[in-house]
Amino acid sequence: MIAKRLLILLTAAGLSAVGLFAQFGGIINKAKAKIDKANEKAKPVVTRAEKAADSFGTWSPEDEQEIGEASAAKLIAMFGAIDNPKLEQYVNLVGNAVARRAPRQLPYRFGILGTEIVGAYALPGGFVFVTKTALEAMNSESELAGVLAHEIIHAAERHLETEIRGKKTTAWAVEEGKARASREPDFIRKRADTLLKEMFDMQLSKDKEDGADTRGAKMAADAGYAPDGLLTFLRTLSSVNARPDADKRLFGQMLSTHPSFESRIANLETLAQGGPQGKTLETRYKAALK
Amino acid sequence: MRYIWALVAVSLALAQQTSEKKTAPPPAKKEEPLFKNKIGMKSSEQTKESASNSFNGIDPKTGKVDAKMHAATATAAHTEKVKKMGENRPTEPQVMAFIKEGGLKAE
Q1: pLDDT digits (tens, 9 = 90+) for A201-237
Q2: Does A96 touch chain B (CB under 8 A)?
Q3: A99 contact residues in B (CB cutoff 8 A)
Q4: In chain A, which residues have their Cβ closer than 8 Å to the Cβ of B103?
Q5: Is the ipTM of this complex over 0.85?
Q6: pTM as predicted
Q7: Cβ atoms A195, A124 nearer than 8 A
Q8: Is the dihedral of CA A127, A132, A133, A136 positive or negative?
Q9: To probe the interface with A, which of B43, B75, B80, B99 has the most A CB atoms within 10 Å?
Q10: How many CA atoms lie within 13 A of A21 on its CB side?
């Protein structure tokens, strides 16, 4: 009798469990189906977004030139340009002698900014600027070639543009998409404003800076310059920066966006050791500055 | 008597000279310039006001470009200057002659 009751109880419990499982399983399956359906529905949206992001991957060569021109004009508005055709021509000759070996060919143009801060800047489209005080801090053509080569690498490899995109992918793509779609007349000017703001505020990745130093030094050496041009220049800056009478504004901007002088010097020292010999051309440099 | 007064006067003058020599500060050691070269040219944006502040637009505390500088707007003259940068690019023969003159590598 007891065994019979026990059997009935067990059977009832088993049947309930099966029912519950079936019910619960049904809920899971329904939920899964809903998720699958939602995923299917969302797929075209994601694909469209991916396509949009891809289409804003990099600027077209035309946009790059226009944004470069607008940025260069703004940079001149900020710091002024040194009006010395002879010196400008010389800087352009050095820059173009090196830029022949650039990883991407652009119409490289070089200008001199009339500010007391020490710096050099690369803008989209091959615009490169060096400051008046940076030229005063150099002692040879190979130093100038090393600095310009560093900037040429930045411009050729679109370092500034890619760094900004990497840091604000969504906002940047949406903003660009909207501006393009509405054919906003200020599109280029706004890009230039953002670009310069980021250039002075944002630190490029150490990889990009170290790469521009080493590949730039190699490019200058391949052009026939002494491979330690940039290294020598950085050593000068480092020693001046250590002087108590040196105005901190000289290097404040550069040090806020680049690795320390010591780190860059250490990175370049290994490259310069036992490397090829090249020209320093101090006399030609000093004659050009007069 | 006259000789005595003359001797006293000379002694006093010498004493004063010696004391001046002792108190006078040593001639200031000329500070070595930060950079040996000097480009003595004015910038296109340099006005009387900015000439007195060579670090115009740079924050004295951080050394960074300040907000006022970022607000600068390019005019037609600045755009023209940029266009000239393109027009004044050296030609290929000019670059080749420069490379040759400096003993650099053409290829």
Answers
A1: 888 888 899 999 999 999 999 999 999 999 999 999 9
A2: yes
A3: none
A4: 224, 279
A5: no
A6: 0.76
A7: yes
A8: positive
A9: B43
A10: 6
